[in-house]
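Give me structure tokens for this 586-residue protein.
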Amino acid sequence: ANIEAIIAHEYFHNWTGNRITCRDWFQLCLKEGLTVFRDHEFSADQRSRAVKRIAEVRTLRAHQFPEDQGPLAHPVRPRRYREINNFYTATVYEKGSEVVRMIRTILGSETFRAGMDLYFERHDGEAATIEDFIKVFEDVSGRDLSQFSLWYHQAGTPNLTISSTHNAAAQEFTLEIEQSVPPTPSESRKRLMHIPLAFSLVGTDGKAIAYSGVEGASVEDGVIHIRRRRHMVRFSGVGERPAMSLNRGFSAPVTLSVEQKADDQFFLAGQDNDTFSRWQAFNTLLTEALISAFRQVLDGQQPGFASRLTGLAGKIAGDETLEPAYRALAVALPSEADIARDIGKNIDPDAIFSAREALTAAIAEANREIFSDLYHRLADKDAFSPDATSAGRRALRNILLDYLSLLPGGAALAARHFQSATNMTDRAAALTVLALRHSGSPETVKALADFEAKYTTDPLVMDKWFQIQASVPGPQTIYAVRALTSHPAFSMANPNRVRSLVGTFSSANQTGFHRADGEGYRFFVETVLQVEKRNPQLAARLATALRSWRSLEPARQAKAREALLSISNAENLSADLRDIVERTLA
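Here you go.
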């Protein structure tokens, strides 16, 4: 799937990037963001549109949202840069893609296609600007997109605060919506955005409730067009109180603060006919439970979880009406970084890890029979195939393995999975489960050795071997990572190897990197400065791992700042690295 997407992306650059190129570096998103949108659409057509959309949003939230909320925030079209290599970012690529998608949502697919056709016709062989791009859509639609174009010029992730009331006697349902954009570096005052919010009022039968009229905002084809700071949107002819399904299909890259009953979230998680929103409802329930558990851990309590939450995970996993790849994404818990982002401040990574492990164990225990039966039924009986259906079955089986590995006999189960694997997907998944869940066990030690011996001459697979070991949670991993830098297969001169070991440890291992005593940061400083002598661009990319340092609890925050200052005070820093560090500290 990844190979397909990458080839598609580079092929699509023939038009969006080559035949129509960019007038200057400030138009970079016109090449990258637009082409990411095109490769996303290709992959959605080739495989599963629902699964692809969820994966896109998870990537956006994991990489772009933290960028927008931290010291490295910048508009999709940057106004200035010191080193352009540092602007090949999630904002330019992923948020740039979302802006194009919103144009399609606002105009409709047919008018959007007409605009793209006009763009290719009008600017073939030219060096274009974002203004040229927006103009073709204005010309084909007759709409004024000047307010919408702020998405290109203004940094930050907008937030929508939404509450609702239902007047049964008057048969009126009201949504009160308020938009805000938090301040970002160099932009303390924000202008109001045009936000297309796809929605549905869902009835008890799971179907959309029809309404006879609406006032308070422009509403077209299931989309509320939010243009003011506050909207009071009144739907008339609504006899029953609906559940609100909001930002369906992730129609806008925003955060939502919604006053909604837990019963409605559970209902939507089981009934919403928009597959993205159904996933989002369950993900929201999981996130809220994890944040509550995080606070319980900080208070010295043992986290507890509602049985209907853990039970719902089993129902979704076993729902044969849903494709396996979708079920795999649905039952995968939010990552530690996702949870930290939603908590926002005073982050203790160890407490987040404990909360997440407790919920994982609770779901595994509550669904041991369902998960075990499904795990065995999903075993491949045919020859390996990379097609979407087969890949989805493997994805679901491997996430079930992760849960089942926490039960008695879990290490032996994962070892058998590893030994019997007929493909890299299953073999790497089993090795990951062994390393992350059973670090140091005889089964894990043997599997790591066997994997290394089998693939020692394959550089890309060995990158995976280093990456898995760098991901092992806990304070002891720093010693393993340090030791691996002396491994014969490791070289600071090999960018992929550095990314797989050091990059994974610093960006994807929350408990290991953010060790309370600062040892992870000290290793980080040493490595970044060492890498910078050979590869300033790679060093600058590694340095972004501390972009959210201000969200940590005070003791870790002080140690992270000290690490950044150590890099900043080093002599003869490259422009690439100095740019990132100074903006991160500013």
